[in-house]
Amino acid sequence: METLLFAAMVIHLMICPYTKVEESFNVQAMHDVLYHGVNISQYDHLEFPGVVPRTFIGPITIAVASSPFIYLLDYMQFSKFTSQIIVRMTLGIFVLIGLITFGNAVGEKLGTGVRKWLFIIMISQFHFMFYITRPLPNIFALVLVLLALGGWLRGQHIRFLWCSGAAILIFRTELTLYLGQILLIELFSKRLSFKKLLTYGVPAAVTLIGLTLCIDSYLWQRLIWPEAEVFWYNTVLNKSSQWGTLPFFWYFYSAIPRCLLLSLFLVPLGLILTPSTRIMIYPALIFVLLFSILPHKELRFIIYVVPVLNVAAACAMSRLWNNRNKSALRMLLAIGAVLHLLGNLVGTGVFLTVSHYNYPGGEAIMLIQKSQLSTSNVNLHIDVKNAQTGISRFTQILPIGNILISRVDLHRFSPLEVSTDFRFSPLEVSTLEVSTCFSSLDLHRFSPLEVSTCFSSVDLHRFSPLEVSTCFSSVDLHRFSPIGSKYMFLISS
Predict the structure, then answer these.
(1) Distance in angstroms (rounded) separating the CA atoms of residues 243 and 227
(2) Which of 88, 71, 192 has its CA nearest to residue 134?
(3) pLDDT value at 488 more than 50
C-alpha cells in the first residue's frame, strides 16, 4: 500500500511539475540553500522579500535531505529543473511518512482493515495527493500534524507536544485551534497531567522558538520570529482579506466536498457505525468552523483535516466490505462503496487535466530556453502573471541577464514573456510560442477547442497601447474539456 501511495504522489508531481506564487518563497529558498549555500547575499528573499516573512527551517530541511541526489544529478549534467522535481518529491516523501505513521496508529486503534481502506481512499482523491509535494507552509506543517496525531492516538504525549509545538510555533499558528483542542481533551481526560505538560511542553516551546529565532534572524538579517509576524499580519490585522474573501461556510460546502469527492457521503455513515471515530472527527470539524471566521479562505488552510475525515469514510468502507456476504443487500452496498472509488478517480482525472494546463508561466520559460535563443545570453522580461504561474529559480536553466523587472524599456529585451492582458508600448513584435492555461469553467459559452494565435506579427507603431487577442482555429474533442482559457505569449522584440 505504501508503494501505491508513493506512485500516486509521483504521478501528481510529474503531471504538474511547476509551482505557483504561494509556493515562491519556499521553492526559491530551497534553490538558494542548494546552489548558494552560505552566500546569503545571493538569496532571492533579500531582493523579493514578499508580503510577510517565512521561516527557512522547512526549506533547509528539505534541501539538506535532497542534496545528495541533486548533487549527483548535477554531476551527471541533468537540467536544474530536475532539482525542483527532486525537492518536491522529497517533501512528498516526508508527508507520506507522516501519513503512514498516522495510518498505522489508526490501524492499531480501529483495525488493519480501516488502515488499508484509509490509504486506498486517499489515493483515489485529488487534492491531498496534489498538495503534498507543493512547498507551502501548510504542507511543512502537515508533516508535523500527522506525526502529532499518530503520537496522540498511541498515547505518546512527548511526540505529540514536540510535533504540535513545531507545527504551531514555526509554521502555522492557527493550528492552535486544532491541536489545542486535542491537548485539552488529553488534559481533561487526565491521560496527560499538567505536570507532564509543563515538564515537556515548556522546554519544547523554548527550544523551538529559539531555533526559529536563531536560524531565521541570521538568514533574514534582522531579529525575527517569522510565524509571529505572519500571525499578526493575517489574523490580528486581518490583512489576508486583501487577497479575497469567501462566505463563512465555504470550507464546508466547497473545500471539503472537493477534497473528499464521493467519499464525503461515507463520513456520516462511519461516524454512526464506528462511534469511537468521533473523538478524532469532532476536533477537526470544530477547527474548520473556528477557522471559518477568518474571511480569507483557501483549501490548503484546512488540508490537515482530510486524512482525519477519511478515517470515518474508511471505517464505513471496512464495515460494508466485511459484511458483504451476509445478504444480497449488503453485497450491493459493498459494491456501491467500492464503485465510489472509481468516481473519485474520474474526478481526480478531471482535476489533474485542468491543473496540468494551469502553469503557463513555467511552460513558457521552458519553451523560450529551448528556442533558437538558447544559444546566446539573453535579457528576459517576465511579467507578473508568468511569475505567478510556474517560473522559479529552478526553471532558469540557461544564462539569463535581466529578469523580473517591473518597469522596463521593452527595446532592451530579446524575448518578452507576457500574458494576454499585457499592454505594449509602440514597437514591432512577433510571436515565438504560445502556452495555454484554464481560467474558468464555462459550459455554456465554449465548445471543446484547440486554440492558436490568430496573428504572426503586428506593427504596433500604428496603434495606441494595444491588448493582444487570440482566435479559435480548430476543434479537438479529445484534448480540451469545455473550459474558458487564457494565454501566455513569448514575444520577441
Answers:
(1) 19
(2) 88
(3) no
